[in-house]
Amino acid sequence: MPRAKKSLLTVFNRNLDKVQPSAIRAFDNEVSGIPDILKLTLGEPDFNVPEHIKQAAKQSITQDDSHYAASNGTLALRQAVTLFLENRYGLKYDAATEIIVTVGATEAIYTVLTSLMNKGDKILLPTPIFPLYIPVTLVGGGEPVFIDTSRNNFVLSPEMLKEAIQKYGDSIKAVVLNFPSNPTGVTYSEEEVKALADVLRETNIVVISDEIYSELTYETTHVSMAKYLPEQTVVLNGVSKSHAMTGYRIGFLAGPAELVSKFSLIHQFTITTATNSAMAAATEALSTDLGRQDTLQMKAEYQSRRDFIYETMTALGFQIPKPDGAFYIFAKIPTGYIQDDFEFARDLAHKSRLAVIPGASFGPGGEGYIRLSYAASQENLQEAMTRLTQYMSENKLN
After folding, report:
1. I need a surface site. Which of 254, 297, 387, 395 has the fewest CB within 10 A?
2. Do residues 124 and 172 touch, judged by C-beta distance below 8 A?
3. Class of domain 6-48+292-393
4. pLDDT by residue (tens digit) across 308-318?
C-alpha cells in the first residue's frame, strides 16, 4: 500500500488541527467490541422505511430517472417541502427560489456555515448541542462561542443571548438553534421562540434553526423560529428522523431568496445534486396523507418509549429534563456514583454491557450527564433498563 510523501503531511488546511474526531462515534466504536453489548448510542430510528415510500424510490429507478436533477433539487420535492412547511408550521416559501434540497441536514449545516463565515467570525452555540456545528465552524475559520444553557433547564434565554451579543458584538455571524434538541429532547415554547426573535431582530445575526426533529414533538406543538423572524432565519429540516429515512440522505433548507441564492453556490459545487430516487421517496413522504400517518405512528411509539425510560431512570435517581421531542434522554448521573461521564459510561459498558454516550460529548453543560437514544425496540429498551438497574444497585461508591 502506498504511503504519503512525508513532506505532504504539512499541506493540509491548518484549521484541521483544531478538529477532533466525533466523540460520539469514537465512544460508540470503543465499546462496540464488548461481547453482548446493547447500544443506545446513536440517533438511528429502528423503524423501516414505509412501503409506499420505498415504492416511490423503486418507481423512480424503473422509469429511468437517472439523469442530473436541478442542483437545488427536483421541483416536485421543493414543492412538497413548501407544502409541508406551510401545512405544519404556517411558513410560506417559494419552491423556485427559497428551497434547497440537501444531502441530509448535515450538508445543509455545512452549506450554510461555509457560506456565511469569514475568518474570525463568531458562531453562537447554545450547549449541550449536536457537536457537528463545532468542526464545521473551525474548519471554515470561524470561532464557536459556547453558551452553557444547563443552568436554565437547557433553554437559551433572552438574557443569555443579550449577554453574548454585548460581549462579541458585530463579530457574531450566526446563532444555531437546534430544537427539539439533540441531546436533551428539550424544545422551545412559542413564547420562548418569540422572546429570542425579539432580541435577534435588532441585530444582523443569521439564525440557523435546525428543526430536524420538529415532527417528533409530544405534549407541545412545534413552533419554528421562522414564524417570528423569517427575514433572518434559515430553517433546516429533512426526512431522516420523521420518516426513518436516515440512509436516503435527504434534507432541505429554506430561507429568504437572497440568502438561498448564495447558499446554492456552495451546495452545487459541493454535491451537485441529491440522488433522484431518494428525492422521489422524500416527495412521497412529505406530500401524501400516508406519509403524515407514518410519522404520527412512529411518534406515538417514541412517546411510549420515552415515558418508560424516563420513569424507570427517574426512579433510579437520575435527574432528567423530561424530553418534549426527539428521541433522547439526557440524564444527570446521581451522586454516589462515578461522576466523570466518560468513566461512568465506560464502567457501565464493561460491567453491564450497556452503551450510552457521555454528556460532555455535547459541549459545556453536558459534563456529568449521559445520553440515551430510545430509538430502539421496546424489547431492547426493557433489557437496557434491567441492565442499568442492576448496575446502579451494585456500583454505588462507598
Report:
1. 297
2. yes
3. alpha beta
4. 999 999 999 99
